Amino acid sequence: MARMKFLCDAERCIECNGCVTACKNEHDIPWGVNRRRVVTLNDGVPGERSISVACMHCSDAPCMAVCPVDCFYKTNEGVVLHDKDLCIGCGYCFYACPFGAPQYPQDGAFGLRGKMDKCTFCAGGPEKDFSEAEFKKYGRNRLAEGKLPACAEMCSTKALVGGDADVVADIYRQRVMARGKGAEVWGWATAYGKPEQKAAPQPGGKS
Amino acid sequence: MRKLIAAALAAALTLGLAACGEKTQVTVYEPGKYKGKLDAKPWDNEQFKGNQAAWEDAVKARSLAQNEYVRTQQ
Fold first, then answer.
1. How far is CA A91 from each of CA A54, A196, B54, rounded to the nearest angstrom?
2. What is the pLDDT of residues A72-115, one digit of tens each?
3. What residue segments make up the domains of chain A, in order of their start?
4. Chain A contact for B67, CB < 8 A?
5. Does B62 touch chain A (CB under 8 A)?
6. Cα–Cα distance between A56 and A71 in angstroms, integer?
7. Greater confidence, A163 or B70?
8. ipTM of the complex as predicted
9. Which of A51, A82, A144, B8 is packed most tightly, with the most Cβ within 10 A?
């Protein structure tokens, strides 16, 4: 069974925000809600790097752990989704999420916080597939159409890759081999450290 | 004097056993269970007609198409 993941290649991302636009357009996202954002590190400095960030569909998702009404669930494909009918918009998941993925649309006359909205990996939600209710609450269900998320498929430089984690890892591995560098950017050593071979910090850039 | 000793012993016994009734103050967190509506499988629709293998093939083909090294070397 596939385990869906996103990966953003900082060497390729050109901060065009095409992924953000594709997401907003695909799901008819309201003003003020950004399921996906492009974050730039060392902006303006030569060697700046950008990455596209949304819900990372964590294997051990902290949003699921803190939700007081247990509205989160994980599909067999590893996609973290939630039931908006249960969500109370408390904001716990926002504080728990390390990526700032949960978003809250303005709701009501005084700008009250509405029900949480986040990236669904274009997998819709717990409503009948392709129904109006599903689109209205969660957006388009591309995964049920046999397609990948719009952001990844729209990415012009293919910096943002999505899909089965094994395939994504293979694609990235091939790129790193072709480039001859970059394995240290996303990998074991970055996550867990490698004391015997510490990469020297480079001015202005991440890689 | 005996009464005093007996009272002291009774008090010591009561105080000594008081700790036995103490309840643990460590909270054990248990993961919650999803309480919402059930979601259909992505292959349970008119396009794939419940054929999981066909759906997986379609998604895999899309995933592999993201690798332009494969596309340009064809």
1. 17, 41, 39
2. 999 999 999 999 999 999 999 999 999 999 999 987 777 778 89
3. 4-197
4. yes
5. yes
6. 18
7. A163
8. 0.83
9. A82
A36 has pLDDT over 90: yes
Task: Specify the CATH architecture of the domain A4-197.
Answer: 2-Layer Sandwich (3.30)
What six digits make up the tokens of A36?
């996906």
Residue B5 phi/psi, 5-degree rounding, is: -65, -45
A177 exposure class (CB count in 10 Å sphere: 0-12, 13-18, 19+): exposed
Predicted TM-score (pTM) of this structure: 0.81
Nearest CA in chain B to A152: B66
Amino acid at A97: C
Shortest Cα distance from B23 to chain A (angstroms)?
25
- Using CB atoms, pick whichever of B32, B35, B55 lies closest to residue A146: B55
Average pLDDT over residues A153-171: 94
Distance from C-alpha of A186 to C-alpha of A96, rounded to nearest angstrom: 22
* B chain contacts of residue A162, beta-carbon cutoff 8 Å: 63, 66
Measured between beta carbons, the chain A residues lying within 8 angstroms of B40 are: 128-129, 144
Amino acid at A113: R
